[in-house]
């Protein structure tokens, strides 16, 4: 992509206004916290303390709106406490330019490097640097520095207290994540009716897994319907795929296919009903049509072999999903609907299914052990995060090509240069330029350039409107505080609609807030806009001069995904060789690694699409073809996983050789991808040639192995150089 086109794309994304679901109650609570702190400190301590407390409360509320699974009070306290400490040091060093620049460089470098710990930590750290740049302009003495830091911390404390005292939709984010995962599987089941090999994006399942990681305290208070449904959703997906795929499931046409379509439609309806119940905390309301489809008594007579086994497993899992999705409030109610579905699903001519919570569990072949209590995924406490974060940051410092290290160096240089230029330019208020830089700069190209354009456009509008109001009305302190609170409320309400909208409100917020103590009245709109433009231009130039392009790393990301997929497929195949020697935990971990590698590849490919860099050995068509082939490998592994043999099943010795060949070929293939060569799958091919002369008791593993080889060949074809024209 050329630079001109890249600039057009990033400008369009930066100025984009999205239609997003507003959350007025959350915005009202955050605004109330800010108003309580600002008005209280204004009455007790005066305007300067009110301004400091406003920064603390404002930033703490912003932290609670970040996409994090940490408890919201913890985020508010973390933001308020870290801002208080950095601001206190800023007050002490603010009178000495060289000392302040040294501290500013250290803070900014740490904030830039903190993005490796996650976007929430990066946003909080970067916002702290931005707030320090503003707050040190407030007139104060060294003796008063601790007082200002204390009221900043008070702002975060009040926001955290309001979240505890006035909770809004407890566990709402976790409910939405789990409901989205079930709804995605419902959509997947319906798409499988028309396309038996339809793709499935695992992102909703990954998102639900992240939401399921809780603290030890949260694990004791989590609603029952959030305990086991995610694990059931994970197990349903391969069963749906194996039921629909003609290679291992029902025939492509005929009565079997018709019955499978009915089951898939019913499964989609049941999963949608469970998703609605979990999202709103209501009892499950099953659609009559789905129950009627599941009541059809001839399933066992129509479906045979792997298809029948998948249908039985699907029935048990749907039963458990419905029961798990029932909230605590309905636990003591008559289970008419649930009992009806359980009886329907378990009555098949072939054998009773069993496995529900009201029946004794069964371990017969083809059934599912469902009466197991899920073990919660425990999130480490805040004190435990310190050593882990230190190790992560230390490792990041040793990686010379790390995009986060490059970002830290880049943003530090820009902020220091911007502050120096702003200090010596005849505009005053040197913080506007570095404030813009630190707020718009991100580790990747598209966000940095898009946010820079949005910041400039939003500042022009917001600062112009606010300055016009100030000059026209000359508001006193009460009106200025009122305008500050209104701007903060609009910011919280419209935060998710687009960065340019939020910058309009933030620009006005800063003007009104500093105007409360007369700290910014003398600066014209023209000067503010010029300094904002300076900060944005510095940020954009820095990325062009010292970039961290994602495009050259695409082959490495692709190779990582290939290795992860190979290990996942090998873990599944190994289970056929030793049914009693390998538990599902090994397969599960390999699947999670493969999903993480896929998400990393997709994110990298998305970032690379907007970069003004040539493909450097991996064209767009090659990347798309390779991605489809690797997704196919994961899908085939999932089909085989749906039919993992139970303990006591006859082992397939040749599967062990195939598993070793898959691991070896994946490693060699990844090395070839990194070296811009075409991978060769000779070990896998030789294994399959040997299989043709052996008797294989389980035909699923042999079919899956052949499909895996076909997918690997498709990957090689995608990466092969195009013939000259």
Automatic annotation (TrEMBL):
Positions of transmembrane segments: 26-43, 124-143, 149-168, 411-432, 452-470, 477-494, 500-517, 529-549
Coiled-coil residue spans: none
Presence of the UniProt keyword Transmembrane helix in the record: yes
UniProt domain Integral membrane bound transporter: residue ranges: 418-541
Membrane topology: Multi-pass membrane protein
Localization annotation: Membrane
Biased composition (Polar residues): 360-372
Cross-referenced Pfam families: FUSC_2
Keyword Transmembrane helix: yes
Annotated region described as Disordered, given as residue ranges: 349-381
Entry's Gene Ontology cellular component terms: membrane
Key words, A-Z: Membrane, Transmembrane, Transmembrane helix
Protein's name in the database: Uncharacterized membrane protein YccC
